[in-house]
Design goal:
The chain is built from five helices and no strands. By secondary structure, the chain is mostly helical. The chain is flat. The chain starts with a helix and ends with a helix.
Length: 105
């Protein structure tokens, strides 16, 4: 049973990591990392998000940084592919949650 479960998990991981969307994310991330200005904006956005979560202020700054980031086509395409990868992960999570819920009840 455990071997079957491990094999199934490995298969799911393989499907996701071999998907076009995941591969595109990796390639685009490599390209983005070569653009210092883009990486600075991404870091600024992450810091602003942390500050917003802590204090609840700075929504305008977040919106401004996101707007600025979306001026970079590579970032837009990256986020589209990342969204699809996250959807795949979400589907797997939901299915696993349902499976274990039914198993336990």
């Amino acid at each position: 049973m455990v071997k079957q479960l491990n094999k199934a998990i490995d298969d799911v991981i393989s499907v996701i990591t071999n998907s076009n969307d995941y591969q595109q994310c990796l390639q685009l991330k490599d390209k983005m990392e070569k653009n210092q200005e883009l990486m600075r904006l991404i870091d600024d956005l992450k810091n602003a998000q942390k500050e917003y979560v802590k204090s609840g202020v700075g929504k305008e700054k977040l919106d401004s940084l996101e707007e600025e980031l979306y001026q970079y086509p590579i970032y837009v395409v990256y986020m589209e592919h990342l969204g699809k990868v996250n959807d795949m992960l979400s589907y797997v999570e939901e299915d696993l949650n349902d499976y274990f819920y039914q198993l336990m009840n």
